[in-house]
Amino acid sequence: MSAAPSTAGAPGTRFSRLGLHLPGLALNAVAFLAGLAFWWAITAAKLVVLPGPHEVFVRAIELAVNGQLALDIFSSLKRVLTGFVLGAALAIPVGFLMGWYKIARALIEPYVQFFRMIPPLAVIPLAIVTMGIDEAPKIFVIFLASFLSCVVATYQGVISVDRTLINAARVLGARDRVIFPRVVIPASIPFILVGVRIGLGSAWATVVAAELIAAQSGLGFRMQQAQLYYDLPTIFVSLITIGILGLVMDRLLQAAERRLTSWQERAQ
Amino acid sequence: MTHSKLSFRNVSRRFGEGEKSFLALDRLNLEIADGEFVTVVGPSGCGKSTAMNIAAGLMGVSDGEVLVDGKPVSGPGPERGVIFQQYALFPWLSVRQNVEFGLRIKGLPAAERRRISDHFIGLVGLSDFADALPKTLSGGMKQRCAIARAYAVDPTMLLMDEPFGALDALTRVHMQDQLLDTWSRERRTVFFITHDVDEAVYLANRVIVMAARPGRLHKIIPVDLPAERNEEVRLSKEFAEIRNQVWHSVYHQKPLIEA
Ligand SMILES: Nc1ncnc2c1ncn2[C@@H]1O[C@H](COP(=O)(O)OP(=O)(O)OP(=O)(O)O)[C@@H](O)[C@H]1O
Ligand SMILES: [Mg+2]
């Protein structure tokens, strides 16, 4: 895929990008520091019975040095990525099938719509009873969460492909088997990527909750353990790690999305 | 008798069902000879695009039949090039990749594709933008890219839906002359929809005037002007007369009391 041409408008773009992003970043930093100061102030003044930033930072270093943090991150990420990749890998073809063939749509859509109404976490008790308490039920629940959000987005993407683009391809001599890879797939990529992002978000939310219920490692499990010992700094470290990892994954996908859909006309 | 390249035989098209159905095209009969250039004018909503889509094989008829080279149309084909009212460029492909789309489907080798796309991109004046994505082009440039894409597959018939609508006056005249030039050299059959009465007369052998509600054929006005069209023709008295005649039949149509 070719990048946007560097002809007209490049200096203007660069200028406005600097003009927009620098104060934006500076403001972000100000907000971050203010939040930190606020947290420090209320805990130092003993207004709330919570650990302060210093205490949490020390615990984070401890957990990082003894390897426990890395192990927890690794277990949680492994579950999320396994479930998510399986879910997305199944959802994308199924979504295309539903969008392209009316019969497939009529057969599958009622199930998708129905299961979408059940929060993935509500499936955990059933999954534990039927699959035991090791990895399988957790991965299954994450798989379900990411599958459902991806499948709907892909299917929406395919049915909203502009008819005139399909017609343009047909009058140039393209048959269905060419139109599908050359027109339908590229035209639905923006939708699919939005679905993938939502899917990863819900997978991440689900894994932590699943680990709270039954696990031997992972960020959710660690918090659950810490809760038993009233270990608030560890709970904070886990929560912050969950937030940061979620944010990083989302930003990576967003960057991929930007690259893959740079051809889209965007309202400025 | 010259044989017809494109024939509409009693073609009707209805949208919707029952009470709320709408007759967009009412028993259209039209014979277009091989190598003929017809322009189609008429008020908005009179079924011009509908007729074109049917000829392109993108839309079925409710009644009647459409023949191309004497054979009933059953779908689109690359021998009928289409330029849509909305440019319909593939936004993820560059200008060149758009122009080469039909050539890839034909299975031409890369060097051959390149040669053809260079030629047609040059013809529409987009050489400096060959690698640009459609989102970076103006409306007129998009339209020119769509024109190059349709010309590139070398169709024997061109179905054009207001192809020059988004162009500025200067480019428009240039594109009109280009089209006439290609047409007179290669004798393609052209079915050309426009809102511009001057354009309709300047380009055509015959002007097809349509009427609305229901969409139907109103009048066929032959254009008896020299085959070679140029500025002189455009400014002639004969041109002005035909132009007035077309203008009158488009803008002073008597409303039909619908049955
Ligand atoms: N897919 C459709 N469904 C329902 N009605 C339609 C459809 N396509 C066209 N029509 C109706 O048929 C009539 C003719 O439409 P058409 O697009 O052929 O008009 P047109 O002559 O090309 O108009 P314009 O000059 O504005 O492009 C219009 O009244 C339109 O509302
Ligand atoms: Mg139209």
TrEMBL record, chain A:
Pfam families: BPD_transp_1. It is found in: Cell membrane. It comes from the Bacteria. The keyword DNA repair does not apply. Keywords: Cell membrane, Membrane, Transmembrane, Transmembrane helix, Transport. The chain crosses the membrane at residues 20-42, 80-101, 113-133, 139-158, 179-196, 228-249. Probably part of an ABC transporter complex. Probably responsible for the translocation of the substrate across the membrane. One of its GO terms (cellular component) is plasma membrane. Belongs to the binding-protein-dependent transport system permease family. This is ABC transporter permease. It is a multi-pass membrane protein. GO terms for biological process: alkanesulfonate transmembrane transport. Gene3D superfamilies: MetI-like. Residues 73-253 form the ABC transmembrane type-1 domain.
UniProtKB/TrEMBL annotation, chain B:
Pfam families: ABC_tran (PF00005). Gene3D superfamilies: P-loop containing nucleotide triphosphate hydrolases. It comes from the Bacteria. Keywords: ATP-binding, Nucleotide-binding, Transport. InterPro entries: AAA+_ATPase, ABC_transporter-like_ATP-bd, ABC_transporter_ATP-bind, P-loop_NTPase. Residues 6-237 form the ABC transporter domain. Signal peptide: none annotated. One of its GO terms (molecular function) is ATP binding. Belongs to the ABC transporter superfamily. This is ABC transporter ATP-binding protein. It comes from Aminobacter carboxidus.
